[in-house]
Give the backbone structure.
Amino acid sequence: MKIGTHSYLFLEFWSDDSLHVLDAAAGFGLDFFEIGVGDDIHFSAAKTRGRAESLGLELVISPGGAWPVECDLSSEDDSDRQAGLAWHKKQIDLANELGAVAYCGSMYGHTGIVRKRKPPHGELQQSAEKLHELASFAEKRGVCIVLEPMSHFRTHLVNTPEQVMRLIRLADHPNLRVLLDTYHLITEITDYGEGIRSVGDCLWGLHMCENNRGVPGTGIVPWDEVFGTLKEIDFDGYLGMESYYSGSEFAWKRGMFHNVCPDPEAFIRQGMEFMKKAMV
């Protein structure tokens, strides 16, 4: 298994001044590094790629920055769906420039958009059709599309492993995989083991997040069940730590009102120690 972390443990906006963070990640012996991207995040892909490659770090990106609300693959408006497709293709081109192995997130809709009504007929199918096109586009660029179910506080479309697998079957493309986030799942499922098993070979990785976004192993996520199931299925993918740096206003802006990550390096040290013991 590969262990990594997210740029958001350290900072809000990735830039050319952030390359030292990759040095720190590599110093901890991490295998990969996830970078939040969006319209408000600007950096040289060549510089970030060069530093990561020199350190032996794989890169992953996710749409955590500014993402126009009209760019939504699930929208009832076809022009919004087309805008969403174009926007995500731009992120995939960035992933290709970075040499990133995957583009992860809730690309099936729009993070933060929760439509509180019974899903209209065809909503998921519309998203699936655009995801098929997106996956084909990404495959030609060597980038895997990894879909992440999120809690019902963040999206109405895909909250559970069962729902994401239904979407993948509808989209019907081999370049679609799944990322399960233990933080999001805490409000959506009651059996983590069954949730992980239900994804099967589509499981690309997990965000190893505590129920309060704190260090893995310090909360109520059933980690024995999580790691026991990963061993059972001989999982050999990506395990990433994700939280928001709380030593600045960033965590507050993301709706995290408690001090879960004041020291990113301490967070990573403690999280790695816990995960490595659990994987034995």
Summary: The two ends are 11 Å apart (CA to CA).
